[in-house]
Amino acid sequence: MLKILMVDDEKWVRERFAQRIPWSDGGFTFMGAASSAKEAISMIEREVPHLLLTDITMPNMNGLELAAYVRKRWPRVRIVILTAYGEFEYARQAIELGVDNYLIKLAQTPEQILEACRKVAEDLEQELDIDHKLEMQLKLEREKEWAKKRQWTERLTDGDGSMQGLPVPGEWLAGVESASYVTGITIGWRVTWSSGQGDTSLEDPLQLQSQLAEILEAKLDAQMLGDGNRLAILPLQHTHLLLLIGAKREIPAFHLSQLARIAQDTVHAFAPVKSLAHIGSVEELGKLRWTEKQLANLIRKGRDGLAAYFYSEGEKPSTVLRRLDAQQSREWTAAVVKALQRENVEAFREAVTVMITLGAPPIHPGDLLRLTRQMLQPELVRLPDAVAARLSGIDRLTTWNTYCEWWLATIDAICEWWNQQDQPPVTVRKEIQWMCRYIREHYQADLQLAELAKLVHMHPSYAGQMFKQEIGENFLEYVNRVRMEKASEMLERTTMKIYEVSGAVGISDYRYFCKLFKSHTGVTPTQYKSKMG
């Protein structure tokens, strides 16, 4: 809603405009009424209105003088002059000043006053709409440019050779690439808010990263950086920024420490986060052109400098972080993916345990998060919606504690999902639900429909009909399916002989077991065991 402020030295006029005119009906918020031009200026300094209604004849500074002052200092504010009878000369002067309208304040009804203000507001709304569109367009362009920078820095540090020969984009580095000395301050942050706060800027880490970059660019101006020094800011991952500083002369260590502290304080003042900083070494370039390899090394050193904070809530520890080799990564990933594909709860928990029980030295968090994403690829494994939604939060895991909490919650969500799949829907009759649970708990026993029907107080024939209707398969088909599922697990996880598995799932006839197993899996027990091994 557009904000309106009025000025009149007569109390009864102020009360009339405040109380008798239905401003909200016209799309306005009435900010209040000032008794003098001085008071009005003070109110505008606190909150700028969209529309100013001012009387002409007021002591000290009249309405025309106020209009001229406001027009010069706040040119976007629209002005309507309130006149009395016989003040048409004032009205003429008001028009020359460029005011938007004038009203004979005692001659108009509240509806007429509101309508006059609405006509002024229509032009203002068109201007605001154009401004809003331009602002949104600039914002979209900034977001696209920021996304390009993120993709560029990620490719630069991938190590896949795709950046060979690609020059460092000078337009992003703001003259830093032509400096004689270059260094980097890597800033990172951890979110310290609780989910109940609902800060939307924190819900989108990329938006927060972009906002922090804009604020730091404004804060670390030329005066703050020092004579001749230049600054460029690049995004790293989701919760890091590289402050790239170029200088004509070598930058003193105390000045870099001061800049790092200012950057940390600025980040903390903007959002409820704990800021971290790593100050890189100063590199002398001389007259040589800065290469993408040098920039990639600087980025990696900055990220590695902050990595140790992952395992420490306080000061940066001196622990050396272990990097995972490709073979170990493949083995761990294969174990988890295999367990997920087979929906094997015990194997899954065992495979994932390695991710949250680290030895010494601990694993580099970059490797840890990368490995986590590889293990939970929706293209490779079936995941419940709740877990798929959690995948976007992997890059927000900035401490070992939050990482472990994330995994524990993810493990529980997946296992609960599997358990729910084993159970009949809640819409199924309670008697049939009970029969299904009993079968899964006693699949190795000699299960008879008549015995289970008796336990749920139903006639066997009626229980059989109801079971087929509710579950979609008859009693024996369901029992056999459960037994074959359990047999598959035993063949995968144990060294039991096939005949031992047959007996363990309640089928004493070995030949019948093999025939039944093939009908459910498409392969014989021997082929299945060989394939899984």
TrEMBL record:
<feature type="domain" description="HTH araC/xylS-type">
    <location>
        <begin position="433"/>
        <end position="531"/>
    </location>
</feature>
<keyword id="KW-0805">Transcription regulation</keyword>
<keyword id="KW-0597">Phosphoprotein</keyword>
<dbReference type="Pfam" id="PF12833">
    <property type="entry name" value="HTH_18"/>
</dbReference>
<keyword id="KW-0963">Cytoplasm</keyword>
<keyword id="KW-0804">Transcription</keyword>
<keyword id="KW-0902">Two-component regulatory system</keyword>
<feature type="domain" description="Response regulatory">
    <location>
        <begin position="3"/>
        <end position="120"/>
    </location>
</feature>
<dbReference type="InterPro" id="IPR001789">
    <property type="entry name" value="Sig_transdc_resp-reg_receiver"/>
</dbReference>
<dbReference type="InterPro" id="IPR009057">
    <property type="entry name" value="Homeodomain-like_sf"/>
</dbReference>
<feature type="modified residue" description="4-aspartylphosphate">
    <location>
        <position position="55"/>
    </location>
</feature>
<dbReference type="InterPro" id="IPR011006">
    <property type="entry name" value="CheY-like_superfamily"/>
</dbReference>
<keyword id="KW-0238">DNA-binding</keyword>
<protein>
    <submittedName>
        <fullName>AraC-like DNA-binding protein/DNA-binding NarL/FixJ family response regulator</fullName>
    </submittedName>
</protein>
<dbReference type="InterPro" id="IPR051552">
    <property type="entry name" value="HptR"/>
</dbReference>
<dbReference type="Pfam" id="PF00072">
    <property type="entry name" value="Response_reg"/>
</dbReference>
<dbReference type="InterPro" id="IPR018060">
    <property type="entry name" value="HTH_AraC"/>
</dbReference>
